[in-house]
Specification:
Helices cover 12% and strands 53% of the residues. With 165 residues, the chain is mainly beta. A hairpin with a 2-residue loop joins β7 (107-113) and β8 (116-130).
Length: 165
């Protein structure tokens, strides 16, 4: 009897130790809302397309979101370039049917790093107001090379504040 309790306790301790040492999983496109602070993240990769859409989570249905910062890393094949992206709004995930956009330019290119070009996008001090219950997304565009394949990867984080109006 004592041995079976000890074995259960030991097994529980063992599983708990494994759980504590297991690697943490990345935040999978989930908003962080704390008081008036707002943050969301999205990433996407595509081979064969010169445009990708990073779909962010629907904004809260009872608050306005004021985006103040966008930060991205973008990669293309070395034969391509990243001319720009845009923050856009829709009434459904990934859509741009509201007609409001904010242009994002690629800066700090690191050309031909292992067959890829890397770009960073950093926009601070912006003010892009999003209505309650909207679906923001970020569209990223690349040039199309005269020969070779297409590759486009982006990972973006947006931060801002929440307000009642």
């Amino acid at each position: 009897m004592r041995f079976s309790r000890f074995a259960q306790f030991a097994a529980t301790l063992f599983l708990f130790a494994i759980a504590l040492t297991a690697p943490g999983h990345a935040q999978g496109n989930k908003q962080i809302i704390s008081g008036t602070y707002y943050e969301d993240r999205a990433s996407h990769v595509s081979s064969g397309n010169s445009m990708i859409t990073l779909t962010l989570t629907q904004t809260p249905t009872n608050k306005f979101v004021n985006i103040t910062n966008v930060s991205c890393i973008v990669a293309t094949f070395a034969s391509q370039a990243f001319p720009y992206g845009q923050l856009q709004l829709g009434t459904a995930p990934g859509q741009n049917d509201i007609g409001r956009t904010y242009t994002l330019r690629g800066i700090s290119p690191i050309p031909n790093a292992g067959g890829y070009n890397f770009y960073s996008v950093g926009v601070d001090g912006m003010f892009f107001k999003i209505g309650p219950g909207r679906f923001p997304s970020i569209a990223l565009y690349s040039t199309v090379p005269s020969s070779g394949g297409l590759y486009l990867w982006g990972d973006c984080t947006v931060t801002g504040t929440l307000s009642d109006s």
